[in-house]
């Protein structure tokens, strides 16, 4: 063969972006098409025997998922979170959170809680670390299976946000235990989570979500249904009930946690919209999974409602409304776009 | 501040396992992913990382690191350092960006898998920090490589390399899909954090960082040394897992680590060996590849595994002998097949450079000198064409690198030996006994087509060098070539030529 000809052509960015008029953002540069097992033209997900166990796993649960899009890399996180922006954002948020814990700790806020509020926190808040850990695991799976690095990265940050929530819950558990050593806080959580009737539907929902191995179903189960529904109870409604009962710290902390949930809802909604606009046939599996998991989410909220100390019907209606508003938004956006 | 200390509350973060009852344990933690094997499930309750970290500590520390790394990058982006870097060194960075950036992303997948299927809550939490770390490493490597795309299209392969069927990414995808993405979490913790990260990444990161500083590439040194500071945190998953596995199933622990070590050693011979011993200007080399391997890999690795009652791998002698040959052969092969590379491989065999090679590798001249002399004489006789590839080499069915490891016969001569095996009516070829043994044990899993198999099966059309380059995604403006033939051939101008080769025929 002849020596390679050299005809330099000026690139402004990675050729993967095509002939772009606008430079991609830092988020896009570091997130675009990074996962080689989703590359175009692959013979199998992995560079090994096409019938190896993991090739078959990915074939079954990702490539053959009912949720299909031609261009998964067309999805963008509306918040454009990349590693650099993530640690800056969360270090700032953590500074606020530490400030709150510090100020209220110094003021002895935990000692001043009413017995009713201590009971509420010990029944509904501190045991939730098991549930949130379960969510952390499902989110990790969504990231692992993600059909685009845009999805995997978003799920990676959401996975870390759940660890953040478990961490904050753990801190508060210890603080409340020190202030109220006879309350059972700090010792009874696992028992409540595994045995108390109020927690069983929630535990069943998250255990079943752990084995929902289809990528589309795992994403729908956690990010479109269980997350938005249970967060309404465990973050918004708990925050409001705490405020009404003189527990400002819990109310403020719930506000901080709500930011993580809202951010997850934003990208999950955008991903669902991307699926619906790219391929309208995706509506059927999404609706099927939403119905299946909504029933489990509602059962979980209904059983937990008495622990909040508010009328069950109101609690369930509030959580359902939050979820339905979220879903209406994404189906509507998709309908308008098509 | 009167915040509670981490030690007061961290057990609540770590203690998040519960007894499943709505689904089977085996369904939620399938053996394919969790790989507990002979280890009783309850044994994993003892899993413990030495060095604890909380979420808040993580984000505070990492914000500082990110701020400082990007500040250095921003400051240096106004300098003209890049324009004055040696082409050989630039090739080391191109190889690194393209070869490493998406391996970091595959490590994200490995960590996410452990964050989901790890057999203890504390392990899964640590893997969550691990996936964040790997997202960082992928982003830094990609973003730093991207900066140079405008100056040189070969940097486009920072993102592109692994989207292609070039032989380098095929080989590395085979290795990393195997140890990172598709292994069960126990094997993964032993092969990735333990064998790969605590051992081999030192080689690429510490050695290359030193060479970068010597070569004046502060920006690159800044990036990779910052990346290396994250490894200690998530790589502890390796030892914590090994401690438990070795107690219940030492045979498996030995095999899995051996295999991870071997695969990593093959890849690094291709990735780091040529950078250290050929591309980095001779006056900037801190240590030879062999010296670095002995200090950072051999001593440390053996110490680590012996601490846990394991032995040196079965292939140890073959591996140690390979320190004198593997990367030299791969370098020559890569230089020969240079149109398939996204960097400019410099041959690096001028008289001074050969003096250095002979000093570091006493057998170098015997094994490689005469081959390079033939190449040099052809170039000095305006016969560069004869030094370009016309066909494909045998590729190893395990590591997918060329079969080019010479060994010494009893009569003192050095030869590449045929190491093959027949299975199911086919003959498979291997570069070494180690690769052959691993393939045989894992044959159901690893058995897939090498680039040569694909070529012979007609998957690559047309069946010419041009067809092969097209299949590899190689484009003319990126195709590698020697950056400066004169630099290493001028010492030999005028001598009597041996072995001039006629293109397209026998010599």
TrEMBL record, chain A:
EC number: 1.14.13.227
Catalysis: reaction(s): propane + NADH + O2 + H(+) = propan-2-ol + NAD(+) + H2O
InterPro entries: Ferritin-like_SF (IPR009078), MP_mOase_hydro (IPR012078), Phenol_Hydrox (IPR003430), RNR-like (IPR012348)
Domain of life: Bacteria
Pfam families on file: Phenol_Hydrox
Single GO molecular function: oxidoreductase activity, acting on paired donors, with incorporation or reduction of molecular oxygen, NAD(P)H as one donor, and incorporation of one atom of oxygen
Keyword annotations: Monooxygenase, Oxidoreductase
Coiled-coil region: none
Record's protein name: propane 2-monooxygenase
Organism: Pseudonocardia halophobica
TrEMBL record, chain B:
Keyword NADP listed: no
Known catalytic reactions: propane + NADH + O2 + H(+) = propan-2-ol + NAD(+) + H2O
E.C. designation(s): 1.14.13.227
Pfam families, A to Z: Phenol_Hydrox
Keywords: Monooxygenase, Oxidoreductase
Enzyme category, top tier: oxidoreductase
Superkingdom per UniProt: Bacteria
Molecular-function annotations in GO: monooxygenase activity
Name the record gives this protein: propane 2-monooxygenase
Organism: Pseudonocardia halophobica
